[in-house]
Amino acid sequence: MQVDDDKDPQKDGTEETSTDKLTPEANESIEAQATPDTEEVTPAITETQSKVKPGPEATDEDVAQATDDAEDSLDDDDEDEDNSRSAKVIRKESTRVSVALTEEVKEEAVEIDEADTSGATGTAHDAFAWDAIAKIDNRYSQEEREAMEKEYEASMTNIQEAEIMSAKVSAIIDGDVILDLNYKSDGLLPLSEFRDQDIEVGSTVEVYVEQQEDDRGQLVLSRRKAKLLRAWDRIRDSYANGTVINGKVISKTKGGLIADCGGLETFLPGSQIDIKPIVDYDAYVGKTMEFKVVKINETIKNAVVSHKALIESDLAEQREAIIASLERGQVLEGIVKNITDFGAFLDLGGVDGLLYITDISWGRINHPSDVLELNQKVNVAVLDFDENKKRISLGLKQLQPHPWEVLDDSITEGSTVEGRVVNIEDYGAFLEIMPGVEGLVHVSEVSWSNQPINAREYFTVGETRNAKVVTIDRDDRKMSLSIKQMQQDPWDNIYENFSVGTRHTGKVKNLTPYGVFVELNDGIGGMIHISDLSWTKRFGHPSEFTKVGEDIDVVVLEVDEHNRKMSLGHKQLEENPWDSFESVFPEGSYHEATVLRKDDRGAIVQMPYGLEAYAPIKLMRKEDGSIAEVDETLTVKVIEFDRDQKKLMVSHSRYVNDIRREAKDTVVRERREERETTRKAVKQTNASNERSTLGDLSAFEQLREQLNNENDDDEK
Region Disordered: start and end of each range (predicted)? Predict the structure, then answer.
């Protein structure tokens, strides 16, 4: 029979169904493959055998014709699409039967010709020597048959279900592969299951035995399941023993790649692709790579693989070899692989080393990227290494001589240098004379003035300054610089320009709780104490009187050349008003005052002529018992005046008490005057009336009682 090479196995229903993952249900899915309807298979085979059974006069042409008729009948019965696979199986069985019977007919025809056919009568069918055929079939005894069956059974391979076995390709017919397992029946698999492998007759493949016999007595095999089980065995072995497996990257997913390892899909995280960060995952899709299994899940038959682990294992061997040969001071070539704020990591050929920012250059740098670039090749010296922690410290500047060793001999004490400000601290600024050579300008060497200098406000990183070398120590590699010594010291002739009592105008440079710092000239300044700001006003802070940057007139009160200090005054520009205040504000005098400010202890009130006085809070109580408020004007009494201490104390309560006492004294005085007038009137009446009547006596008695009551009130 001719094989149709153009038949598409997908159209015949034999295309392999792909499986993404071998899950616990995968075994059942593989075993539960589709089985075609076999109800019509047995009758069809019987009919086929009856058609190809030769008669006594059958020739080769008759057998071939019978075979073709059987195939035609099978083709007619193949109209039902659901029974297409059954028809194919029958077609293959009929082919095998026809070939076998053709050979058997040729052999037995000779024997039949020699047999006795003398009694044959009737038609050709009836004339066939059926007894001769039966005699041939019965040429073995029952014991011989049983012995041969046992020998036949012993020659067969012992096949168990759910096992993977090797099979030999015995034939490839019409898109199907017939497999010989040395079993009583052959296996049949679609050719589509071998798309990943080139096979031919005689090739050996592995298959999974699903059933020893199905309803038709055929062997049920699966190569796809055998591949999945073998793939899972390899994955488990890689996880347990660290063996390497191959896989093909088939797609990209979130966070990594999907790799097909022998038919099983595994996950390759992005961090496990390579030892360096990977940005473009698409570049790996379609590549075949080697992996190590780093994690498996037996329940869902899933695995996580790593390509990075293979690279790291190779690098570990190289690292061990490199570290074993390291020596301090050894010069190596490295490639800059990463740059951070604190340094750079260099690849030394399988092992990484750290180059700290302080070991990159003898001079100060803000960031390693100022000197280095990624993938740049540089020679570095090994400074230190730790074999246990696999850490290597590298140095770049150590390959060059120290700048202090090649510093120009012309730089000595008293010489002038130019430097760039590279660092600023509270105590001063560092000037870089040349890379690796720095000098310190202390805040005390910035200006001749004793006024405090804020280095962070005076200097700016990166600016260039000229300075004079004050001290230099080449052995300790230290240098101190001065900016103020670039100019003449103004204190050398201080008495000529700023003698005591002279008046000047300066600029307010700083304010403190106790005074005002005034700059009179470059490097020359002094302080006005807060008590020397005004004769008449008291300030809680100098900011109430002036501000930084304002001009102010001052008088030189005292000069201390040794300590380079100067005392200034502002109120001394005017005459001391306290000499005349003693007569204006004597103790006990009353004055109108306005409350300027107050606190829990007292209040400051403004007296006439701009003079400020102090009043304890308890002495600011008014007649109604309340305390006087700010901006309230009231009369106060001077209770203390000290010209030397310039102190004036007043009280409103004392004034209120004085007013009350004065009012009471006035009432008493008026009553006494009235009583004296009444007595005089009585005396006059008595003198004019020599004899008194009873009525007059009564009136006189009332007058006497009135006088007595008035005397009692006065005593109270």
Answer: 1-89, 667-716
For residues 396 and 186, give the distance between their C-alpha atoms in angstroms, rounded to a whole number. Answer: 75
CA 543-549-553 angle, 5° bins: 80
pLDDT digits (tens, 9 = 90+) for 559-577: 888 888 889 998 888 777 7
Query: Residues 353-358: contacts with CB within 8 Å, 24+ apart?
Result: 353/380, 353/382, 353/392, 353/393, 353/394, 354/391, 354/392, 354/393, 354/394, 355/380, 355/394, 355/395, 355/396, 356/393
- Alpha carbons within 13 angstroms on the beta-carbon side of residue 106 total 8
Q: Does domain 577-659 have CATH number 3.40.50.300?
A: no
**Are 245 and 284 in contact, with CB atoms under 8 Å apart?**
no
Please tell me the distance from the alpha carbon of residue 90 to that of residue 312, in angstroms, as a whole number. Answer: 58
Sheet holding 164-173, edge to edge: 187-190, 176-180, 164-173, 204-211, 220-222
- The runs of H, that is alpha helices, within 77-219 are 84-114, 130-137, 142-155
List the structure tokens of 168. 């030999």
With beta carbons less than 8 A apart as the criterion, state whether 559 and 509 touch. Answer: no
DSSP 238: H
Q: Class for domain 415-486, per CATH?
A: mainly beta
- Per CATH, 242-325 and 577-659 having the same topology is answered yes
The greatest distance separating any two alpha carbons of the chain, rounded to the nearest whole angstrom, comes to 221
Q: Of 633, 631, 639, which Cα lies nearest the Cα of 657? A: 639
At 534 the pLDDT is 82
Give the integer Cα–Cα distance in Å for 694 and 700: 10
Average pLDDT, the chain: 76
What are the residue ranges spanned by the domains of the chain?
161-240, 242-325, 326-399, 415-486, 490-573, 577-659
Tokens read off for 317: 């061997």
**Cβ atoms of 507 and 546 closer than 8 Å:** no
Does residue 514 sit in helix, strand or coil?
Answer: coil
Closest CA to 334 of 321, 315, 323, 347: 347
Tens of pLDDT, residues 327-369 = 788 888 889 988 999 999 988 876 788 899 988 888 888 889 8
The answer to whether residues 330 and 364 touch, using CB atoms and an 8 Å cutoff, is no
Q: How far is CA 420 from CA 357, 499, 515, 666, in A?
A: 20, 40, 36, 88
Confidence at residue 442, expressed as pLDDT on a 0 to 100 scale: 93
Domain 242-325 sits in CATH at 2.40.50.140
490-573 topology per CATH: OB fold (Dihydrolipoamide Acetyltransferase, E2P) (2.40.50)
CATH number 3.40.50.720 given to 161-240: no
Prediction pTM value? 0.38
CATH code for the structural domain at 326-399: 2.40.50.140
